[in-house]
Amino acid sequence: MRRQARRWKGSVVSSAPSFLERHEFLLRRLHSLAGLVPVGAYMMVHLAVNASVFGSPRIFQRLVFHIHSLGPVLPLVEWTFIFLPIIFHGAFGLFITTGVKPNIEAYPYNSNLRYTLQRATGVIAFLFIFWHVFHMHGWFHNHFWVTYVAHPLMGAEFSPYNAGSSAALAMQASFLVPVLYTIGILAVVFHFSNGLFTLGITWGIWISPTAQERAKLLANVVFVIFAVAGMASIVGLYSMSQEKIAEVRAEEDEAYKVLVETGDIVPNPEKHSPLSEYAPGKHSDAEESDVEEGE
User: Fold this and answer.
1) How far apart are CA 199 and CA 39, in angstroms?
2) pLDDT of amino acid 227
3) Is omega for the bond preceding 72 within 30 degrees of 0, making it cis?
4) What pLDDT was estimated at residue 3?
5) Closest Cα partner for 117 from 219, 8, 3, 33?
6) What residue segments make up the domains of the chain, in order of their start?
7) CATH no. of 39-266
8) Residue-level pLDDT at 15
9) What tens digit of pLDDT does each residue of 204-217 get?
10) CA–CA distance, 248 with 273 (Å, rounded to integer)
């Protein structure tokens, strides 16, 4: 009887509010803020950088070189300001979504539709980002994982030191790839742009009907701008011919050679495309043959 009482008492204690319930107000504010900074800010920069490939793969590669010039600090920056905030925003967003009951049929108003689409696009965006990071980066940079797990599953297709050419080949691997990217990018952009509107309401920035109408207009403009930027990157990569890809790769290798000589970037064969002359094993063999000829 004494043991049963303890168990019963234990069940009473377990009925206390959970950590999420006790801090729901704060977590919702942090979730909302993280959607703007740093997650939303990174999305805008990321789409803008990727859109540059439509006009000039050379500029795109230059921007990627600039990012990777951070060297060993780059993973710390990525996890602190990109991956962990995205994981928090996405995971807590899914937690919120589980308690949402769409009521479009009962209240078919524009605001309710936007609210429902915000939750739906949040789920799509989370799944898309999860796949996108695998498709381009393979999740982990471990050599064994990339070689024997990611590559066989069409992952880790992006090579930073051959950014434009490798991204083009990745986009052209299947007709489904640009379709998935189109769906994913539009979901991400809508989720962010409409999130600006809801964030302003959550934080009390726009309260009056007039202010909210202006906020909706701002959200729509933001959506159009970054949706166009996202589509530009897809079109630029998918429409690149094989001859153009080879030409771009040669330019990337030449730029890499110059930047290594000037000390602006750290040599790293693992960051090259397998088709690059600087891919692991290729350039070292060429250098050894040059040395033998000189002897």
Assistant:
1) 14
2) 98
3) no
4) 46
5) 219
6) 39-266
7) 1.20.1300.10
8) 60
9) 888 888 998 999 99
10) 12
By CB neighbour count within 10 A (0-12 exposed, 13-18 middle, 19+ buried), where does 7 fall? exposed
Look up the pTM and report it. Answer: 0.85
Cβ atoms 219, 196 nearer than 8 A: yes
The long-range contacts involving 166-173, CB below 8 angstroms and separated by at least 24 positions, are 166/273, 167/53, 167/136, 167/237, 168/237, 168/238, 168/240, 168/245, 168/248, 169/245, 169/273, 170/135, 170/136, 170/237, 171/234, 171/237, 171/238, 172/237, 172/238, 172/240
Residues, the chain: 295
Q: What is the DSSP string of 64-109?
A: HHHHHTTGGGHHHHHIIIIIHHHHHHHHHHHHHHTT----TTTS--
Q: What tens digit of pLDDT does each residue of 269-283 get?
A: 999 999 999 988 775
In the predicted model, residues of the chain with pLDDT beneath 70 are 1-21, 99-110, 283-295
Helix (H) or strand (E) run with residue 245 in it: helix 242-262
> At residue 37, what are phi and psi to the nearest 5 degrees?
-135, 120
- Residue 207 has what DSSP assignment? -
The amino acid present at 102, given as its one-letter code, is P
